[in-house]
Amino acid sequence: MLSNSPKSSNRPNPLPRTDTFTCVRCGLTVTTLDPGGSRRNHCPSCLHSQHVRYAAEGGPSACRGRMSPIAIAVLRTDDWMVIHRCTRCDELTSNPVSPDDNQLILMRMAVRPLAHPPFPLEAFGDL
Hints:
The chain has one helix and six strands. The strands form two sheets. Strands 3-4-5-6 form a four-stranded antiparallel beta sheet, covered by helices on one side. Strands 1-2 form a two-stranded antiparallel sheet. The protein has one helix spanning 103-115; strands at 20-22, 29-31, 49-50, 66-74, 80-86, 92-96. By secondary structure, it is an alpha+beta fold.
């Protein structure tokens, strides 16, 4: 039997607490938990975030600049990470890709180095 007594309020809530934030670029209201239950810090639509933590020290950052997605990194575990650069202070961070992240933007970032290599592609014709 459930009780509304003050003693029952000390029990942990079985439902996960879901906070939200507003994307600094596109204005979308985003939940801090992705569909897999992991915490996220970037918008699943445009992949931008806000600079709220120092990468090196791990503490809060006073910068509050917009973090733009600039690249994809693939870990040895085959997990994908979004690389962000702060538009205000140029700090780089990495964050795990969430299951509902915009796949078109992720693929565009992943193939960008192939579309614009730092060397002439004609060199491969002679191999």
